[in-house]
Design goal:
- By secondary structure, the protein is an all-alpha fold.
- The protein is 75% helix and 0% strand.
- It has 16 helices and no strands.
- Helix 3 runs parallel beside helix 5 and helix 12 runs antiparallel to helix 13.
- The protein is globular, with a radius of gyration of 21 Å.
- It is found in: Cell inner membrane.
- This is MFS transporter.
Length: 449
């Protein structure tokens, strides 16, 4: 198997002459390795969301405690942060194909163990925490490594288009995976549900196995250990544009993360219980899929810093609109407390779902350009470590957002976090980007970290 080239740096994005708004499939045509990686990761990712959903349902069935379910995320948070930082350093030192395959093998093995204990009827909750933490650590390393591989498979002008395709796959994972899990758990049980993930994992292996070797450039190979992690973090201090792409995302996720509110919205505001919560979650994901499907001309934009600013502002406005719908429903006396979906406030549900779809679409557009900056402006020998930090940001930010929204809703009302948080996202992002002109004027024709 031959090595991949050091990394295409010649071709840069230009203002797109593309007439169609439909997603540009060119990356899948020009790079068969990327196409196999994309298809394989999409199928494997569906399996991951099947398992993640099933684990939450399984622990709740065993404990009847939402708090015990939430501990899955909290136990894995610190190990995932460490894995993101060190995993990125490993990806910069060794063959990235080998690193991704090794990490994916560990993740697959943990899923096999999960399926095995389910078949054996084990009821010890601590087993689920241990296994899911191992799975999360391995998946974090594999994800950071896969993202660092993409720029070695495509030319620079293809990276925004590839990011749009990844947005489609992410949306499919979020919508299809939990749905399959719900059906399988109800009809076949947990053991069969985990076993489906075990089988889907092989699609991801195929995508990785057929890649060329992605070896580091010898003159820039990472030294390894803690020193390598420090070098990667030091690079961020000298990379204001990459650093700002992280900061604006943290702002959006910390103050504009309403998903933790969905169960309460379905129980005491709009009504409809878990069905309403599922619709709201799906609305966000569908917005992301639609924005990727219509990204054909968007991905050719040259001024990507402004595109990120504007899309995150739109995200904040969508979250604010969601909060306004909840406020009008609550304060106007239209709240429904029935868990029966037949009694749901349909106008409020439609308005809330529309606002969340706007937010999901805007968040996806932001992700397309943030990923493009990260992959095109960062030198190849630092991409693994930078992607590791990116993984830490996208993992930790939503958890901070859950804490903000959950605490504020407990102290005030269900609608307050989205109204306050959405407004804060808009103001903070506009002010922050205005203070960093290199990011605001970031030019994709001349990418600078």
């Amino acid at each position: 198997m031959t090595d991949a080239p050091p990394g295409p740096e010649a071709a840069a994005p230009t203002e797109s002459p593309r007439r169609s708004h439909f997603v540009d499939l060119t990356p899948l045509r020009v790079s068969p390795p990327f196409a196999r990686l994309w298809f394989g990761n999409t199928l494997a990712g569906i399996g991951t969301f099947v398992t993640n959903t099933a684990v939450g349902l399984h622990i709740y069935d065993l404990t009847r405690s939402t708090f015990m379910v939430s501990l899955v995320a909290w136990f894995s948070l610190l190990p995932m942060i460490v894995a993101g930082l060190y995993g990125g350093a490993i990806a910069d030192r060794f063959d990235r194909r080998t690193v991704a395959l090794s990490a994916s093998t560990v993740a697959w093995a943990s899923t096999v163990v999960l399926a095995t204990i389910a078949w054996l009827g084990a009821t010890h909750v601590w087993m689920f925490y241990v296994i899911t933490t191992v799975n999360a650590v391995a998946a974090t390393i594999a994800s950071a490594t896969r993202q660092a591989i993409t720029p070695r498979l495509l030319t620079r002008d293809m990276l925004p288009k590839a990011a749009a395709l990844l947005g489609i796959s992410a949306g499919v994972m979020v919508t299809v995976g939990p749905g399959i899990a719900g059906v399988l758990v109800a009809r076949a049980g947990y053991a069969w549900t985990y076993t489906v993930d075990v089988e889907l994992f092989f699609a991801g292996f195929f995508g990785l196995w057929t890649l060329p070797r992605i070896r580091p450039e010898s003159e820039h190979a990472a030294v390894g250990g803690f020193r390598s992690v420090v070098d990667g973090l030091a690079h961020l201090r000298r990379a204001p544009n990459v650093r700002m792409s992280f900061i604006v995302d943290i702002i959006a996720m910390t103050f504009g993360q309403p998903m933790v509110l969905f169960p309460a919205v379905g129980a005491i505001v709009i009504g409809g219980g878990s069905v309403t919560a599922g619709i709201l979650l799906a609305s966000f994901a569908v917005g992301g899929i639609v924005s990727s499907l219509g990204s054909g001309r968007v991905t050719g934009l040259r001024w990507q810093g402004r595109a990120i600013r504007d899309s995150i502002v739109a995200y904040g406005l969508g979250v604010l609109g969601f909060g306004v719908v909840l406020a009008v429903t609550t304060l106007g006396g239209f709240a429904v407390t029935s868990m029966d979906f037949g009694d749901v406030n349909r106008w409020a549900l439609a308005g809330a779902a529309l606002c969340l779809a706007v937010s999901g679409g805007a968040d996806n557009i932001s992700a397309i350009f943030r990923q493009s900056i990260l992959q095109s402006a960062v030198p190849d020998h630092l991409r693994g470590r930078t992607q590791g930090v990116f993984t830490v940001v996208v993992t930790g930010g939503p958890r901070l957002g859950q804490m903000f929204a959950g605490t504020l809703a407990t102290l005030t009302a269900t609608w307050v976090p989205s109204v306050v948080g959405g407004a804060l996202v808009v103001v903070l992002v506009v002010v922050t980007v205005a203070r960093v002109t290199s990011f605001r004027d970031y030019d994709a024709l001349h990418p600078q970290p």
